[in-house]
Amino acid sequence: MDDTKTVLETRLRAVFDAVETGADPVLRPSDHADFQANGALALAKRLGRQPRELAAEIAAAASLDDLCETVEVSGPGFINLTLSTSFIANQLSAMAADDRLGVLGSEPENVIIDYSSPNVAKEMHVGHLRGTVIGDALCRMLTYVGHHVRRENHIGDWGTPFGMLIEHLIDVGEEKAVLELSVGDLDTFYRQARASFDSDPTFRDRSRARVVLLQSGDAETMRLWQILVAESVRYFDEVYAKLGVLLTDDDIVGESAYNSMLADVVRDLDGLGLLVESDGARCVFPPGFTNRNGDPLPLIVRKSDGGYGYAATDLAAIRDRVGRLGATEILYVVGAPQAQHFEMCFAAATMAGWLPDGVRVAHVSFGSVQGADHKILKTRAGDRIRLVDLLDEAVERAETAIAEKNPDLDAATRGSVAKMLGVGAIKYADLSTDRTRDYVFDWERMLAFEGNTAPYLQYAHARIRSIFRRGNAAVPDPGPLPLLTEPAERDLALALLGFNDAVTSTLGSWNPSRLCAYLFDLATTFTGFYENCPVLKAPTDELRTSRLALSDLTARVLAQGLELLGISAPDQM
Ligand code: ARG
Q: Which of 40, 88, 111, 188 has the most Cβ atoms closer than 10 angstroms to its Cβ?
């Protein structure tokens, strides 16, 4: 099917182009009409013409009779478009018959999306929530519109801390250490290793020697390192399973995967004349990056001790992703504090020619999750909160909330719905916040059945499904055109037709909060419809079928929209 807004824009653009090419009739939903085009203002300015006059000329020349009831010039030179009911009805029935619910396909790109990326032998805290959940939602949407998506979990599995971690593993004893790590007590393990390193000079020496052994690929050292990686990955998998994200072990491409490429990266940068020696380290100085004093900032690729740093690995990864894997787009879903690191890596990679034209890279940055005090979320005892504990608590709280709301639900259903609601609530609270902003973690708000929350949307979906159950009604064929006589029916129809735009604009900004805002608006609009338009008790059979069709399509869009966010929608709750 053709997207409603796109059809209108294309028609108008043709007329704009006849006046002057390159003009853009951007359409927005409007309070005064279904859509408002405001492009005539800019065009008039450019041509030195009177904007209302130009708008009137364009409105008259555009043949929109088959799509619009009225086309009017308003304000300083806007063009207000009110769609005809038959066009809306046709669009809607095409949408209902479409597997992708009217969401347009994109020219396929090879997208690599680097997200989650926790560190071996370190706990997954609430800070890892955002990257994992936002990255996952973007993967789902990118795939939905037809891109080839490759997930990469760039886990931190290499570097100097592993000397100390391996020595600690030896001290604790393999068996006991594995036990500690397998129950997810990663923080204790890391903290104890750190404490020995800080207090015991012998341990410190051993750790340093161990790093050298690790870097030289010593077999026994690699075996011990492998234990740490394997146990951590097993633990990450447990968290991912609870969270319900797409990541699997196949997606792990840790920092260590690039070891064999680092020497080449440095050699090639050197060959290109991009390396500068600074305090014994070998650095790239991408232009435009300075510190507070205005001095050029180095991107260190090889440290003064000969080791390679985080930046070298990321440069190797860019080169490999573009050169070997053919990525045309690379997205890094990583917290805002790493913004400068990525900007500098992208700049250095561009200087080296590893990011040719036509390859797009972006740091999809996000803000932090805070406690009520606007600081990092902590437990009452002052410890950082583990992500698993947060998820378990969410499910518990959801179970209580469901028991209150629907005491008749059998225990098994209640249990499975509680998982969808609890985890959904956490994910949705995260996704519905503009990703660049920080937000305060708030149980009450995220689990509420009112407001822009997962439970509200899940409930809206389940309520529609219950209409069908109560009325013993079959889901109508997408065939017959819906009747849009009441304003509330028309409003709902227009809201449904906005699905493509919501997904497109989410992907245009990599900001899932846009899809969330859309779904919330759709659910609210449905409530308005349901209050004004009896469905099962509609005055005629024809109207009943039509309203059932509108209801079903709403449920499908809600379920699909939630699915794109990685959230399940139960049929009853
Ligand atoms: N492991 C890193 C951290 O916890 C994040 C890695 C992000 N991805 C990347 N390609 N640098 O900070």
A: 40
